[in-house]
Amino acid sequence: MNEHIVKSYEDELNTLTAECARMGGLTEAAVADSLEAVIKRDKSLAESVVDRDERLDVLQADIERKSIRLIALRQPMANDLRRTVAAMKIATNLERCGDLAKNIAKRTLILADAEPMAPLTRSIERMGRLVCGRLKDVLDAYTSSDVDRAILVWSRDDEVDEHYNSLFRELLTYMMGDPRTITACAHLLFVAKNLERIGDHATNIAEIIHYEITGEEMISAERPKTDALRG
Amino acid sequence: MAQPQSGSISPLTSALAAAGAGAAVIGALAASGRLEIGPALGGALLVMGLGWLVGQRADAARALPAPAVEAEPGRSAPPPYASLVNALPDPVLVIAAHEPDDLAGRRFVLVNDAAREFLRIQNDAGLLVTVIRDPEVLEAVDIALFGGRSAEAVYEMGGSQDRVWRASAKPLDAAPNGDRRALLVLRDETDIRRAERTRADFLANASHELRTPLASLSGFIETLRGHARTDEKARDKFLAIMQAQAERMSRLIDDLLSLSRIELNEHIAPQGEVDLALAVMDVVDSLGPLAADKGVRLEADLPAAGTAISVGDRDQIVQVIQNLIDNGLKYSPSGGAVRIVLESGLTAEAAVASRNPLASRMSLLTPDHGHDLYGVIRVSDSGPGLAREHLPRLTERFYRVEGQKSGDRSGTGLGLAIVKHIMNRHRGGLAIESQEGAGATFTAYFPLISAVQATPRAAAPIVVTKVS
Hints:
With 231 residues, chain A is an all-alpha fold. Chain A has helices at 9-40, 43-74, 78-111, 118-143, 147-154, 157-177, 182-214. In chain B, 43% of the residues lie in helices and 20% in strands.
């Protein structure tokens, strides 16, 4: 980094936002690629997702370091403080999403050796596309500072949960029908769980955006929720 | 065309300026309809024109010491070819940057109208990463900025419209203050991709579904040529079954074709105005005889005509209504009723709000941007309803709820898939609410053309009840 250049306060804040947005782009790509690797049983794509995860870890550490530095040196207040803290928290959430994508990619390496399971992969694909869409929406809300869009993502978490529950039942049916599929189904179950958790992180990011812009916290009791363990 | 201070212009800039003048001539010819411009020439024109534009701007900055021009390039007096760049159908961005390490330094300094629309850019200039964060596109831009080479990347813009763009980054000459500059042009490749995918899907699904009736047909033909040759009674029976199977195949092919046609146009917004109340009335009238045959009542509760006008393709909207009512008829027992309610002027939240606290509810399609007000069509049947776990998969092609009788299984398994694709094209939404044993309600909502602020169901409501 160019430490010798004395940047203005505003520039430093902008850099934080820009780095979060770039990290968001990398995370989106990792999640989308890991999903494609599962669908197409593409081992080399899965390996590239695993390799790229390190970059996200480095970026997250970097954003955290810069945020702390900014808080220490500039002592931001109000809006600026919230922006800084939000960048730090969003980076942490994105890093977790990257880890989950990496985990999906690792499972793909095992799934690619097993028999293809077309109907299940289609269900995973639908759920994955939904989660990718939510991640995109929430990051769009972040870069355009659009609270309404963030609230929209936040209030729609139940769609992902429904997909997860439906997939859970479907996988159980397969496993009971043919015990030879248990290994593959168990991995797919974790893939679905990981996707569901990426969806949860998108919801978290929406909450952070809401706090960053309005200064108020969202009340999670108001969010529509479906009990994942029901039935 | 005046060339200001030609002495101070670099050889490259003046070459570009000359090219720009050429482009203008070609552009004028094309406008008068005397010259066809192919996509390749169009692209070349675009690069020449922009090169000229950026060059001109550099000259202006050199000539005028006023810093305002430099700091706010978008706000300076519009350069002569700004309208040309704005009129280009492909999104175009000019990106400037100081140094490779400085992420916040990569800014877009010029965007055309198409870029504003597709990337939802509100400002004339801003951080590049806030409008495009796809790592591959950013890398292509970096190669053009700092590697001095052209680079391309595929840019998949997620969301329910799912567009695919080809992003090409080309280096431009440096700005007077030493900033490096690059041109980023996006070209829509959604159609090509979609056509490829549709073909693959069609082959995979259709061959399987067509095989079943075909196998039955050839089985009966074999029997008729064999031992049933002389049995007149059996022959009549078999021929009736064969006809039913052949009809099923033809329905399937019709549905597949209309589905793939809808899919190809899915991201092109429909034109035209449709009165939802009249459309529902027409469908109710045309399905009346079918309902009477089944002994099912059709009850329609509609506001006055003219209160719910939506932007849309009338044939497709009719198909949505027809598929939903048809579906309701299929699952309603004799003596039951299918109820169709149209409400105008609801928000998206109100459209999908729960009506029955005991029912499971699921949104099958949610519109991308919150349009203000919607015209909402609800179709409720008195059938057995659906279990929660089936809801997310209903719009999947050829999905059938296991263990559920769908009458004579006359459906193709494509009806709801078609509904979903049409609703997506109309930027509308689709939701289902169902309680096992208590029927299902499908809700399709279309964006209204203008906010009809009249309270829903103003004027004299039309209540049509068809009793068979």
